[in-house]
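Fig. S4 source data, part A: sequence.
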Amino acid sequence: MGNVLKESLYKKDVKRFEKIADGSKEFSGAYCGSSILGASIFGIVENYARKKEMALELLRYPFHDEELWAVTFVKKGTIFLCINSELAICKQIFAAAHELYHIRCYVEGTDTNTIRTGSVLESKMVDEAAMTQEDLEANAFAGLLLMPDRLMREQLALYGINQTDIKVDDILTLMEVFALPYKAIILRLFEEHVITETKANDLLQYDAAYVAQRTELTGKAKQWQMSSVKIEYFGSLLDNLEFNSENGLLTESREEADRKFLEEIRASFRKDR
């Protein structure tokens, strides 16, 4: 579990991390406000694209592959962000924030190649090692955006968490507040010097089974550990199809073709368990 520290942007390039931190604060001020984001990140992604006058479709669908978190690509001028709704909700939230960084790089022209060729976020890129420099930066951006320094310290004080002796249940409390995965919380605490590297590594030694057991016993962060597997949301694609169909705006052949296209999207997400 310890790779999450040594493979972080903070450990590899602290100066670049500081620039990403500044960028996350600037972005938050323009698009997020001063509150804890949590599940509102999905709406923030859409609002960012709207303000930038970029066509974006945010799709959530169960991929039936727990290793695959999200996919982002551009098709005919539209950005498609597809998130695996079978994951724990906290992972979906992190995935959305991670992919938002790629989208921002594309929209602002700092790097258009990642999205054009297709961004694929897998669990190993969050838990172990990012595949590219941009993925490394996207991981840092996601953590900074979803758990800003000021709000982190505010919540530590509000919950009376002893920074010199943080335990697993304290991490669960912060997971409940910020809707982030266990490792992401520990990394943010380390990045902001709330805990030492030794303490972070100690907390990372607890395996997923133990964390799940404590979650079940305490009830903390349980809501964010559940999947939303029943969600099949295709942005405006399905809405537009139904509207056009109900108002007689499509020929039978066009409606059939559009429904076939949506089914192809569903099928492309499915994988045998």
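Fig. S4 source data, part B ends here. The chain has a mean pLDDT of 87.
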